[in-house]
Amino acid sequence: MKNDVKYSVSLSFEEIKLPPFEEILVLGKNSPHGKTGISKSFDLLIPNGFEIVDTDHGNVESVFINKRILAKMPKEKILKILEANVFPFVSEKEIIKVDFKVMIAVTVIDD
């Protein structure tokens, strides 16, 4: 007696970007991937694309900020926003991807 083997395959795929985040990455103090290792991998993927900012805030060791964001908004203002809204939720072993969209509105009044 011969058995027939049949296969059923369900397949989907989508494009990914490297690195897998575009704006900000928050690195916990004891994350499994250290600041140096992540920094070296980013230098290979996107040379000179991110600024690394060290912090003494609780469980957060450092923040990787896309330089495009820094061209629009001061680093100190970005860190203040992150300290209030993101850092309190970061555990020491985590790496957190932050979607950080900046919209600029200008009102000009001519005399």
Number of helices: 3
pLDDT < 50 runs, ≥5 residues: none
Which strand-content bin applies to the residues? 15-25%
User: What is the molecular shape?
Assistant: extended
Structural class: alpha+beta
* Spatial strand arrangement across the major sheet: 2-3-1-4
End-to-end CA span: 94 Å
Average pLDDT across residues?
88
H/E topology pattern: EHEEHHE
How many E strands?
Answer: 4
Q: Please compute the radius of gyration using only Cα atoms.
A: 21 Å
Summarize the main sheet: 4 strands, antiparallel
Helix content: 10-25%
3D structure, described in words:
The protein has 111 residues and is α+β, with helices and mostly antiparallel strands. The protein has a domain at 24-98. Helices cover 23% and strands 19% of the residues. It is built from three helices and four strands; from the N terminus they run βαββααβ. The chain has helices at residues 35-45, 67-70, 75-85; strands at 24-28, 50-54, 60-66, 95-98. The protein is extended.
